[in-house]
Amino acid sequence: MSVYSDGATTVLLAGVGGQGTILAADLLAKTAISNGLQVKLSEIHGMAQRGGSVTTVVRLGEQVHSMVCDRGSADYLLCFEATEALRNLPFLAQNGKLLVNDVSIKPLPVLTGKASMPKRVHERLGEYNAQLVDANKHAREAGSLKCANVVLLGALAANMPFSMESWEEQIRLKVPPKTIDMNIDAFHRGVQSVASEANRS
Amino acid sequence: MQLLSGNEAIAQGAWEAGARIGVGYPGTPSTETMESFGAKENVYAEWCANEKVAVEVAVGASAAGARVLATMKHVGVNVAADPLYTAAYTGVNGGLVVLAADDPGMHSSQNEQDTRFHAQGAHIPVVEPSDSAEAREYTMQAFEASERFDIPFFVRSTVRVSHAKSPVEVGERVERDLIPYEKDPSKWVMMPAYAKPRRTSLDARIAQVAQWAETSPLNRLELNDTSIGVICAGASYQYVRDALPNASILKLGITWPIATGLIAKLANHVDALYVVEEGSDYLSMQVKATSVTVSEPPAHALPKEGELTPGIIRSAFGLALPEELPTQQDVPGRPPALCAGCPHRLVFKELSRAKCIVTGDIGCYTLGALPPLAGMDSTLDMGASISMAHGFELALAGTEHHPVVAVIGDSTFGHSGFTSLLSTAYNKGAGTICILDNRTTGMTGHQGNPFNGITLQNRPSRELDLEGMVRSLGISDVQVVNPNNMKDVRAAIKGATSRTEELSVIIFRSPCVLLKKVFERQAPYTITSDCRACGVCVTLGCPAIARIEETGEACIDPDQCVGCGQCQAYCGFGAIVRMEGALR
Ligand code: SF4
Ligand code: SF4
After folding, report:
1. pLDDT tens over chain A, length 201 residues
2. Distance (Å) from CA B338 to ligand 1 centroid
3. Residue B454 has what DSSP assignment?
4. Chain A CB within 8 Å of residue B242 CB
5. Residues 6 or more apart from B375 whose CB is under 8 A from it?
6. How many domains does chain B have?
7. Which of A89, A176, B229, B338 could be joined to B248 by an S-S link, Cβ 3.0–4.6 Å?
8. Which ipTM value was assigned to this complex?
């Protein structure tokens, strides 16, 4: 059951302002377009970007109407931070796929002791078959913490029908020339992190 | 084919239509439109001090025969309302199109408002795209229609059109010669003798636009199922397509004046007619005024506030929704916060400490109102800080009261704070004004402004003298202070607020940390074993400083700390020190 009659695939990217969700969403959208699909991508700017919770929606398919996403409707929930994964769980569709960067960033109310972090996060995410990705570690190994978003994109790519070449092409076009190799490396580390996880289970 | 946001597509449409001048004031969700327009060839674009100025420049350029684009967010339309209402009377020479970007859901605004009410009040026709391809197309059509009907046009967008990206087929620019300007006071001088005939002319021009709306391809009648008919516009149209795939739809691309004939046609085709719109009853009121019967959705009414989604529409029509995973109850909120190293932080900390009444303004520093800083009492609109402080002082005069302090940014001071200060100075007001000069317009993404001398297209300019401007109003108590130094901030606030008879101005000047990597080469700070768990440093609200739950001691995240050193001065035990050797 879907609220969308357009039959498009819905990807919700959720993270903390400044983590690079918009760049990852942009690469996903452009890869889908280069594969002949229609795309709508919806992002939020301004005040929320100052370290607040941010979400970006990418919808792709033969035709796409809505640019926003309802609860229970995200085919993929790609989370850049574990608390944001819990926050956005209600958006995940029944058969949706949950991919989570295994880091926690404490929000201000927690830093100041006014609130606390959720407990048993791994266990709870596990109940929804989350695939955890250590994107920060992979990004550092690739050369910079800044490309953690591209590692996560790789983890998503491993689940999607597009060729690796079409992803790489868009990364080459988008990132600063000096960082192309690093980002492609980061991307493949993301792809493999999911593949090795799948082998284990 | 390009992947463009609605904003970029509007800029593209204006450029293709031959617009040669662009004017605006940055404001989410409109900002990228002018940035993108200004980056194109053969155009002149500028950030104006505010939206009223932008519209006035635009009317001048139009009178001189150029096609011109003006951009602003919904609350900016209020600022520009004065010239806009008269611009409908004068009409145009070169095409004049105004982008008004509304923000249903208030992602980055102090209110929700529907610009179409202004459009109706001002007699300015509105086109309303529902995705990026339409944003380009409608903008081009608006330029044509503006010249054809001799009237400015609004392009109304909402956040989900402005900030949604979708593929756009772009075209070539058509260069347009200036339409020769001919002196004509009866058109351009709006004193009563000339304005009265122009009012009659305005009604006639609008009647023509209304006729055009009946046949324009911008309004689209999609006749399907006869049981449900829906009238909608903008982003809502996309949601209706998903939620009610069989419905007959009148998709209005022109939402003022309204195509009454098309509405009647849809009403005749269907058993029940509904209006689906976001956060407003503008469209339903318009449709009801045509005396067709509008039904309420069968299950429940659509919300009057916030954004719509396909799911919200389905639920109003009693249709099934997908099952949801349970909401996780223990997830802490994640409000936005001033950046690590933000130069505004200590000002709010010290104003709180001094128990000042703080009237605030619009910008990053609005975040100073949130805990733990909690250093602000009010936020109303651009420039209100200074005038509201004056109001507080007037009302509290003669009573024992906490010091009244206004807090305003450099860009906002240029927008409308300066006239507030002019007025307060002239009326012999008292109190303290803090101008938080971070050398940029922070929240909207670091645009230039009169006080950093950076123009939209990086043309040579001048950096205006902020201190000189303030002094020119006859205010002599003016000082410039480094806001990263706690002792200086404290002393300046204490001194200024104790001189209660006069107006005083403190300019806290230090660049925004995102502007350039101000602290890039500085090592982060760290907490030593001298920490006594007093918790003072945590009250600064720096995202790099945390309180360890078990011990109460503080710790600093070296990945987030930018090494500004603001926190060091607050530790009474000398436990905050620079991590020497650990260059970032
Ligand atoms: S963007 Fe600049 S001004 Fe805004 S909170 Fe961050 S450092 Fe402060
Ligand atoms: S030095 Fe202190 S106040 Fe500045 S960023 Fe680091 S932890 Fe925050």
Report:
1. 689 999 999 999 999 988 999 999 999 999 999 999 999 999 877 666 788 999 999 999 999 999 999 999 999 999 999 999 999 999 999 999 999 999 999 999 999 999 999 999 999 999 999 999 999 999 999 999 999 999 999 999 999 999 999 999 999 999 999 999 999 999 999 999 987 765 554
2. 6
3. -
4. yes
5. B347, B348, B349, B351, B352, B358, B368, B369
6. 4
7. B229
8. 0.95
Please tell me if the CB atom of residue B542 comes closer than 6 angstroms to any atom of ligand 1: no
| Nearest-10 crossing angle of helices A164-174, A21-34 | 130
In a domain, B435, yes or no: yes
For chain A, domains (ranges, CATH) are 9-105+121-194 (3.40.920.10)
Distance in Å, CA B343 to ligand 2 centroid = 11
Residue B257 preceded by cis peptide, ω within 30: yes
* B75 and B121 assigned to the same domain: yes
Q: Does A53 contact B371 at a Cβ distance shorter than 8 Å?
A: no
Q: Which residue has the tokens 């806009």?
A: B84
What residues contact residue B89 under an 8 Å CB cut-off, 6+ apart? Answer: B190, B195, B198, B199, B202
Query: Do β-strands B220-222 and B248-251 pair in parallel, antiparallel, or remain unpaired?
Result: antiparallel
Mark whether B206 and B226 lie in a shared domain: no
Looking at the fold, whether B497 and B549 belong to one and the same domain comes out as no
Enter the pTM of the model: 0.95
The domain boundary, picked from B481, B509, B537, lies at B509
Same-domain check for residues B309 and B378? no
- Are B225 and B208 members of one domain? no
Check CB contact of A66 with chain B, cutoff 8 Å.
Answer: yes
Rounded to 5 degrees, φ, ψ at B244 are -130, 70
For residue B439, report the phi and psi dihedrals to the nearest 5 degrees: 65, 20
Answer whether B525 contacts ligand 2 (Cβ < 6 A).
Answer: yes
Q: Does B373 touch chain A (CB under 8 A)?
A: no
CA distance A94 to A83: 20
Is any ligand 1 atom within 6 A of the Cβ of residue A50? Answer: yes
Consult the annotation and say whether B434 binds a ligand: no
Is A34 within 8 Å of chain B by CB? no
Of B309, B303, B249, the C-alpha closest to B274 is: B249
Rounded to the nearest angstrom, the minimum Cα separation between B413 and chain A is 19
Report if residue B443 sits inside a domain.
yes
Ligand 2 atom nearest to B562, measured from its CA: 5
CATH code, B138: 3.40.50.970
Do B314 and B321 touch, CB atoms closer than 8 A? yes
Q: Report the CATH number that the domain containing residue B251 is assigned in CATH.
A: 3.40.50.920
Same domain flag for B133 and B229: no
Q: Is the CB of B342 under 6 A from ligand 1?
A: yes
Q: What are phi and psi of B129, to 5 degrees?
A: -75, 160
Find the domain containing B198 and state its range.
Answer: 2-214
Give backbone dihedrals phi and psi of A129, rounded to 5 degrees, phi first: 55, 40
**B367 and B502 in a common domain:** yes
For residues B207 and B229, membership in a common domain is answered with no
